[in-house]
Amino acid sequence: MSSPSAQPSSGPAAVAALQAVLATEHAAIYGYPVIGVNLTQSAEIEHARAAEAAHRVARDGLLEQLAALGTAGAPAAVQYEPPKPVTDAASAQQWALALEQDCASAYRNLLSATATVIAAAGGSVASLTAYRSQALAGLTAAANDSLYWRALLTPDAPTVPFPGT
User: Fold this and answer.
1) pTM, entire model
2) Which three-class secondary structure state does DSSP give residue 69?
3) Is residue 104's pLDDT more than 80?
């Protein structure tokens, strides 16, 4: 999930949406090490490590993208609270799912915000395509990771119709 090569006309709504995505990436980067130490299956631990690495790449790309737009990326919070204490594999999986759902929601909002702002600002088709590609790639990655964690928690219903809602 790297930043688009073409920088579109970005207004406050697009920058706010990028900052919201950045915030969810910060939370995921904080959460995955906590999640990983509470998992017991090697495949789950490897998936958590890969997800953390992917979130770091996305975060770094967002920071570069915001800097290119003349805006500093919001710093990470000092700590992030899981919905409930993470004390075992099941609670770790639940937090991983919650983090990925938050990321999916943020990327879905980015898709909506950038399309509206770019159209209103007269942005180019290439700019629109670059931002939509970024948002769809992020949404797809979060949906896939959500599917992984949800399948462990609720094997009979591993997916949702519209990720990020």
Assistant:
1) 0.87
2) coil
3) yes
